[in-house]
Amino acid sequence: MADFAIDPTLQDQLEWMRAFVDDEIVEIDLAFGGEEAVYNKKSVLWSEVLRPLQEKVRERGLWSCHLTPEFGGQGYGQVQLAYMNEILGRTTFGPSIFGCQAPDSGNAEIIAEYGTPEQKERYLQPLIDGMISSSYNMTEPQGGADPSQFRFRATRDGDEWVLQGEKFYASSLPYAEFAIVMAVTDPTVSVYKGTSMFLVPTDRPGINIVRRTGVGTEPEGRGNHPLVHYDDVRVPADNMLGPEGQAFVIAQTRLGGGRLHHAMRTVGVVGRCLDMMAERALSRTTRGESLASLQMTQEKIADTWIELQQFRLQVLHAAWTVDQVGGHAARKEIAGVKVATPRTLRETVLRTIQLHGALGISNEMPLSPMLINSVVMGIADGPTEVHKQTLARQVLKGYQPAEGDWPSEHLPYRRADAKARYADVLERHLANL
Ligand SMILES: Cc1cc2nc3c(=O)[nH]c(=O)nc-3n(C[C@H](O)[C@H](O)[C@H](O)COP(=O)(O)OP(=O)(O)OC[C@H]3O[C@@H](n4cnc5c(N)ncnc54)[C@H](O)[C@@H]3O)c2cc1C
């Protein structure tokens, strides 16, 4: 039986988090905003404002809770992380201040699991100390959802690997000290067996950012998701992360948790939208009536509340399933959440914009970036269609084809069987009518 109970210790921590986020982090979002500020850890914002706040989070025992105590975290399960991320999701800087910002959190997880002691010391430690940013380079211009299109190669040359190719949407690469790069090391086998991962310091010669791609209405040429060329970039052989040819197995380690964490934060954003809608409905009048008194406004609020409850419980259930059986066995639940996330967010944000009218779609409210983010959620980490496919395949595994030509719910056959079973009683029953 699923159990989402919050124990008193966690409850205490969540209350502290809620107050800390409201009192300390919301204003950082307002004053500094923007993704670039999140990842540029050499800025005065980081040294003067964010690091002292991170210290408070550490003292409170809430730093990088997704990591095990061995790596400075709390070893929290996904249900505990769900409650935390719901609070952090209401802000942009929250995850960084609590040591769980993507892609660093997922990168830390895979280095913790697959890294050698030397790799952990050099790459993991500063990452989990929050001193550096990292990047994860998998997508290529010609192939994102379909890895069989990947052309990026790594070729062995003595004690080194030589990396050659293009990566697209290499998020936060401009600020990263290192990137985890996926490269085909054996083109003679399936890409799923012939791709390896490398830890690549970004100061290596040959790494050239071609242009900085942005999202949505960001000005062209400015953004945090560049196209990058790796032109004969050399790394020592021991910069391979995990076993050769196992990149996709390793990638699964980071993606499952990452998808859930995005969903958990989306619960927070949807909650924020509901707050905005309710306040607006109660504050604004039209033709002498409050918006809240109009049935179609009430419908928007009711639908949003229902969808928030459904989505929140779905996310908690997926988190609980992962805690029980692990990410691989919970891929149906994770895929379901991945599909529901953009849809729930998009519908909620659209309603919130609508209720705020021109102000809602203006750049004076936080709603347009949320709307773009809802679209991002349906593309990044794999498009919705692919996750629906995964989900449907998993669901279908629990079923068998019908025996014979007719569906098992076909009424004439079912009724004939039922009537045969009760033939005697039926005859007497009908005679008495
Ligand atoms: C904001 C953002 C940040 C990102 N950060 C990173 C990052 O840090 N590192 C990284 O490596 N990548 C990153 N990505 C890239 C992301 O992982 C890819 O966009 C994603 O895998 C989809 O690949 P694609 O964009 O090439 O789309 P495509 O593979 O070209 O797919 C385009 C569309 O085709 C359809 N489609 C594709 N496959 C199927 C299918 N099997 N069945 C049905 N329809 C299908 C879908 O409609 C899909 O949306 C990021 C993307 C975004 C938007």
Report on this model:
- With 433 residues, the protein is α+β, with helices and mostly antiparallel strands.
- The protein has three domains: 8-115, Acyl-CoA dehydrogenase/oxidase, N-terminal domain (Butyryl-Coa Dehydrogenase, subunit A, domain 1); 134-241, Butyryl-CoA Dehydrogenase, subunit A, domain 2; 249-396, Butyryl-CoA Dehydrogenase, subunit A, domain 3.
- The protein contains 14 helices and ten strands.
- The chain has helices at 8-32, 35-39, 44-59, 78-88, 94-97, 104-114, 117-128, 247-283, 295-325, 331-361, 367-377, 384-396, 411-421, 423-431; strands spanning 133-137, 153-157, 160-167, 176-184, 195-201, 207-211, 227-236, 240-241, 285-286, 289-290.
- The strands form three sheets. A four-stranded mixed beta sheet has the order 1-4-5-8, covered by helices on one side. Strands 2-3-7-6 form a four-stranded antiparallel beta sheet, with no helix packed on it.
- Helix 8 (247-283) packs antiparallel against helix 9, helix 8 runs parallel beside helix 10 and helix 9 (295-325) runs antiparallel to helix 10.
- The longest helix is centred in the middle third of the chain and has 37 residues, at 247-283.
- The chain is globular.
- Residues 103, 136-139, 144-146, 169-171, 215, 225, 376, 379-383, 385-386, 389 line the site of flavin-adenine dinucleotide.
Q: Give the CA-CA distance, first to last residue.
A: 47 Å
CATH topology of the largest domain: Butyryl-CoA Dehydrogenase, subunit A, domain 3
What Rg is obtained from the alpha carbons, in whole angstroms? 26 Å
Overall tally of domains: 3
- If classified by CATH, what would the architecture of the largest domain be? Up-down Bundle
**Would you tell me the structural class of the helices and strands?**
alpha+beta
Number of helical stretches of at least 4 residues = 14
Strand arrangement across the biggest beta sheet: 1-4-5-8
Q: Name the CATH homologous superfamily of the largest domain.
A: Butyryl-CoA Dehydrogenase, subunit A, domain 3
Sheet having the most strands: 4 strands, mixed
The fraction of residues in strands falls at: 5-15%
Query: How much helical structure, as a percent, in the residues?
Result: 40-55%
